[in-house]
Amino acid sequence: VQLQASGGGLVQAGGSLRLSCAASGRTFSSYDMGWFRQAPGKEREFVAAIMRSGYKSYYADSVKGRFAISRDITKSTVDLQMNSLKPEDTAVYYCAATASVGVRLPNEYEYWGQGTLVTVSS
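and the corresponding structure tokens:
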């Protein structure tokens, strides 16, 4: 499956951004979808995931209550609504797809998008 992430940009602290990831090539509903981020000099970290059914989602503690993940099966997209952004949210954000069981670790994902940069200024 091919993944294309978009929606990154520069925003002030407290602002909002919506990232979108478009999937193509294989049956979108067969995959759990996740968002990860990687800040300069840091390892890639889990942000959020949504199950292939669309009924269950998971979040990192650092974004819980501020970010919301959703998916549209008809459009084969998965979005990440980011509110109350903080400077520490600054990173390249990646969407990923997995047909395996786990969703919180990068090595559990088979397919990755190219990443989109989010910069939050203080």
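(Above: one complete record from the training split.) The chain has a mean pLDDT of 96.
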